[in-house]
Amino acid sequence: MKNNNSIKTVVAIGIGAALFFVLGRFVAIPSPVPNTNISLQYAVLGLLAAMYGPVAGGLIGFIGHTLIDLSWGGSPWWSWVITSAFVGVVIGLFAKKLQVQEGDFGKGKVAVFTVANVIAHVVGWVVVAPVLDIVIYAEPANKVFAQGAFAAVSNTITGVVVGGLLILAYTKTIAKKGSLDRE
Prior knowledge:
Layout: H1 2-26, E1 29-30, E2 37-38, H2 41-52, H3 54-71, H4 78-92, H5 95-98, H6 107-137, H7 141-172
Antiparallel strand pairs: 1-2
Helix pairs in contact: 1-2, 1-3, 2-3, 2-4, 2-7, 3-4, 4-6, 6-7
């Protein structure tokens, strides 16, 4: 059974990274903050990190964001790639509490998912990304902290709202343990 879970996780990482790439590259919504978009890929990252844990979440964020940056013809912007991986890891750390695979996504688990997203995105985009932008690229602090603040808010909203709806839809497809279909 463990081998089957490993295969599912590897497949989830591949599909997740591909979806992260497609949404981030082709469905990005421009924002008023330069070089910052409203990014729906963080909803998929939230769903899959909640389902498969921190390793899968980290790899989906890292691979998906790297592919987005490479597709623009330049080199990856490593500070943001690392932050996407960080977000996936942090949300994935809550996977055991969420137990998405069990098919229950009630108010308590919605609250846990929301807290996981807030922690991941706020720390990631307000601390990790700007600090790495300054250290790696010598970017101006006021610019990167403005970008980070906007990304934290918009990614938290898309992660919680759209990601939460994805989890709710997924959990509705799972038969509850001990339930029987009665006609």
